[in-house]
Write a structure and sequence with these properties.
The protein is α+β, with helices and mostly antiparallel strands. The protein has helices spanning about 5-10, 50-55, 95-105, 145-160; strands at about 75, 80, 95, 115-120, 130-135. The chain is elongated and about 70 Å long.
Length: about 160
Amino acid sequence: MTQQTELKLVNNLPKTPWNKGLKKGRKHTEECSVSGCNKPYRAKNLCNTHYNQQARGAPFTLPSPMRERGTGSWHNGYIKLFKPLHPSSTTKGHILEHRFVMEETLGRSLTSTENVHHINGIRSDNRPENLELWVTSQPKGQRPIDLVEWAREILQTYEKECS
């Protein structure tokens, strides 16, 4: 057989799905054996989280408690709220909860140069007393006239709030 004939035979093989003939995995109805964890187990009576912790030699920890259903979703540790009619919401209708709480506290919308800082560093702790307003704007030039003008703008914007 020539090399072309061999290639032709290989290319004429019927295409079959990669998982044909494999048995489907059983669904686990039993829960993880770690007390307080109610996830279904993966192996050795442990859920994925606890199985991986055991493999790493790490102590078992319980998953973080989830917020009440329907109150928001998580994004990089921050909580997103679905408020499609809010002026600061994204095109999909979401707003980060800490920004929403700060806007409610101030009674106005935040500007693009304002950030909300979590004092204790916990992104999901959105109590007003844990939030701090930070301004990140800075002038493009560094001439003294530009700096003085920028300082006047900052004072005019935030003087009422700081009094």
